[in-house]
UniProtKB/TrEMBL annotation:
This protein's encoding gene: EEFSEC
Pfam families tied to this protein: eEFSec_4th (PF21131), euk_SelB_III (PF21208), GTP_EFTU (PF00009), GTP_EFTU_D2 (PF03144)
Keywords: Cytoplasm, Elongation factor, GTP-binding, Hydrolase, Methylation, Nucleotide-binding, Nucleus, Phosphoprotein, Protein biosynthesis
Disordered as annotated region, ranges: 547-574
UniProt biased composition (Basic and acidic residues): 553-568
Protein name: Selenocysteine-specific elongation factor
Gene Ontology, cellular component aspect: cytoplasm; nucleus
Domain Tr-type G span(s) in chain numbering: 5-217
GO biological process: selenocysteine incorporation
Record field: catalytic activity: GTP + H2O = GDP + phosphate + H(+)
Gene Ontology molecular function: any one: GTP binding
Primary role: Translation factor required for the incorporation of the rare amino acid selenocysteine encoded by UGA codons. Replaces the eRF1-eRF3-GTP ternary complex for the insertion of selenocysteine directed by the UGA codon. Insertion of selenocysteine at UGA codons is mediated by SECISBP2 and EEFSEC: SECISBP2 (1) specifically binds the SECIS sequence once the 80S ribosome encounters an in-frame UGA codon and (2) contacts the RPS27A/eS31 of the 40S ribosome before ribosome stalling.
Organism of provenance: Chrysochloris asiatica
InterPro entries linked: eEFSec_C, eEFSec_III, EF-Tu_GTPase, EFTu-like_2, P-loop_NTPase, T_Tr_GTP-bd_dom, Transl_B-barrel_sf
Localization in the cell: Cytoplasm; Nucleus
């Protein structure tokens, strides 16, 4: 009778030619249909072009057995049952810079990450990017220093010690500080060497993996969702979709949907690394066979329980900037958006809480449509870039004083619709950047909180999103009419329809509150009503302006008269108009706080 098998997914990531595929081959006993660069293009170019999967099994370490669910632990109690096994599924990710989107897709389905470093070269551009992805998507890491066979025999240990210290220093600033580092030679002599030479350090690596692996929490409940990375046909059987189950479970004869194609199929048979199974659950790597489906229609994507997923045209996300990305995240900028195995172009609009809510704790499982949010020209962070917009500078005032919001969001609009679950990981990058430049192309990561399914979401949905721009206008008091009225100027252009602003409050630099009453003439001037009246001090400041203008037509005033009226020159009195304009308000209304 077959024993219990616990599956853990281990990612093999690193720079191109660091020996990842050779390491996976040295570790593996059972290769899947997608392992070890079986694609003709991969063999021809000598690099991994796609995710490769293989596995090896070891007896389940005693320290992990208490972590098994009670029902499963009981399964291996009987004498007839074989010893429970730990199945380690290796996800070999490509290291070439142009294939970073495939790496991101792979990282989201792994429980532990092996970062493979060529010991003769150290950290390289793509190994750094893989480390960044690991910090976003993984909780545990171990570093493999590969190709130690290339080191001079007399200096081998010194070179390994030196590179170990370098890697420890690199990891110090990450969440993987103190992660184990182990030297190996996965393929002594290089790719062309004979198979007779045994790999070095592999048994020690397996022992290290056994000590580092923990049993991930797997939940068979909830809707079935599987990330498919390969699809192919078997003559006389049907079409096989292989991938990793992200949530829920699946059994023989279940109906599953390919949501991107709106196709529902029945599960005819299932295998896990060539072993037939009747069911599989979250975390398992499985091949599902269906009939009458063309494999060319689905290279990779999602398969789910019928009607459990929806296709979206835009989304609201909570996000964080990746600190290694140089330059600002600007509103209206385009990024490559990776969700699962899909990468599409998307345009972003950033927004934050209102300044009085900057310190509120982040909420990462929902979006509150009842709240108001403040539009941002760019993501607020310590390395804020100067902008041409005075308005953006005013909005960023709080941030430049060292006060940043605990959480920020973006409206993400896709160039083509995508199918994905709610609360999934989103990574934004600039994959069009120079792949030879020593810069991080990964810009931000976040969580998808709300997807917009309606194609006409700009009309049907966005007006509900209360994101506003805070507008400021400054003008001057030109003269006083009476104790309750002044004439203002320099607040509006000559062609502005001042009638739109009638009733809005303005504040005088002397402290009074005024209300825009009407236009005054045709040159952009306007009349302001002061409900509480001008204070005597304010009148003293403004009256010389009135007197001077009044005397202008009657000739020059004598110096004595001027001196008697007010010895000091008058200060200009400013008017300040502040209002909100909601970004998605079709009527473009101006709103002021009560």
């Amino acid at each position: 009778m077959a024993g219990l098998r616990v599956n853990v997914n281990v990612g093999v990531l690193g720079h191109i030619d660091s020996g990842k595929t050779a390491l996976a081959r040295a570790l593996s006993t059972t290769a899947s249909t997608a392992a070890f660069d079986k694609q003709p293009q991969s063999r021809e170019r000598g690099i991994t072009l796609d995710l490769g999967f293989s596995c090896f099994s070891v007896p389940l370490p005693a320290r992990l057995r208490p972590a098994l669910p009670a029902s499963e632990a009981a399964c291996d109690a009987g004498p007839e049952v074989a010893e429970p096994q730990l199945q380690v599924t290796l996800v070999d990710c490509p290291g070439h810079a142009s294939l970073i989107r495939t790496i991101i897709g792979g990282a989201q389905i792994i429980d532990l990450m092996m970062l493979v470093i060529d010991v003769t070269k150290g950290m390289q551009t793509q190994s750094a990017e893989c480390l960044v992805i690991g910090q976003i998507a993984c909780q545990k890491l171990l570093v493999v220093l590969n190709k130690i066979d290339l080191l001079a025999e007399g200096k081998k240990q010194a070179a390994i010690d030196k590179m170990t210290k370098k890697m420890q220093k690199t990891l110090e600033k990450t969440k993987f500080r103190g992660a184990p580092i182990i030297p190996v030679a996965a393929k002594p002599g290089g790719p062309e060497a004979l198979e007779t030479e045994a790999p070095q350090g592999i048994s020690e690596l397996i022992e290290l993996l056994k000590s580092q692996i923990s049993i991930p929490k797997r939940d068979p409940s909830g809707p079935f969702l599987m990330s498919v990375d390969h699809c192919f046909s078997i003559k006389g059987q049907g079409t096989v979709m292989t991938g990793t189950i992200l949530s829920g479970s699946v059994s023989l004869s279940d109906n599953v949907e390919i949501p991107a194609l709106k196709v529902v199929k029945k599960v005819k048979s299932m295998q896990m690394f060539h072993m037939p199974v009747t069911s599989a659950m979250q975390g398992d790597r499985v091949g599902i066979c269906v009939t009458q489906f063309d494999p060319k229609l689905l290279e990779r994507g999602l398969v789910c329980a019928p009607e459990s997923l929806h296709t979206i045209h835009a989304a609201l996300i909570s996000l964080e900037k990746i600190p290694y990305f140089r330059g600002p995240l600007q509103t209206k900028a385009k990024f490559h958006i990776t969700v699962g195995h899909e990468t599409v172009m998307g345009r972003l609009m950033f927004f934050s809480p209102t300044p009085d809510c900057f310190n509120q704790e982040p909420v990462l499982d929902s979006f509150d449509f009842s709240r108001e949010y403040l539009f941002q020209e760019q993501f607020l962070c310590k390395d804020l870039a100067p902008t041409d917009s005075g308005e953006a500078d005013q909005q960023a005032d709080q941030a430049t004083e060292g006060h940043y919001p605990q959480q920020q969001w973006a409206l993400m609009e896709f160039e083509k619709p995508i199918t994905c679950p709610r609360l999934c990981l989103v990574i934004g990058s600039r994959l069009d950047a120079d792949i030879h430049a020593n810069t991080c192309r990964l810009a931000f990561h976040g969580t998808l909180l709300h997807g917009l399914e309606d194609k006409n979401y700009t009309e049907s949905f966005l007006p509900k999103l209360k994101v506003y721009k805070l507008k400021h206008k400054n003008g001057l008091v030109e003269r006083v009419i009476d104790d309750y009225s002044v004439i203002g100027r320099s607040l509006f252009k000559k062609e502005t329809n001042i009638q739109l602003f009638v009733g809005l409050k303005v504040y005088l630099s002397t402290g009074e509150l005024g209300v825009i009453d009407s236009a005054f003439g045709q040159s952009g001037k306007f009349k302001v009503h002061i409900p509480g009246g001008l204070s005597p001090e304010s009148k003293k400041i403004m009256m010389p302006v009135l007197k001077k203008r009044g005397r202008a037509g009657r000739g020059e005033a004598t110096k004595e008269e001027e001196g008697a009226e007010r010895p000091e020159p008058s200060q200009p009195v400013t008017l300040r108009l502040t209002f909100k304009r909601y970004v998605f308000d079709t009527h473009k209304r101006m709103v002021q706080s009560p």
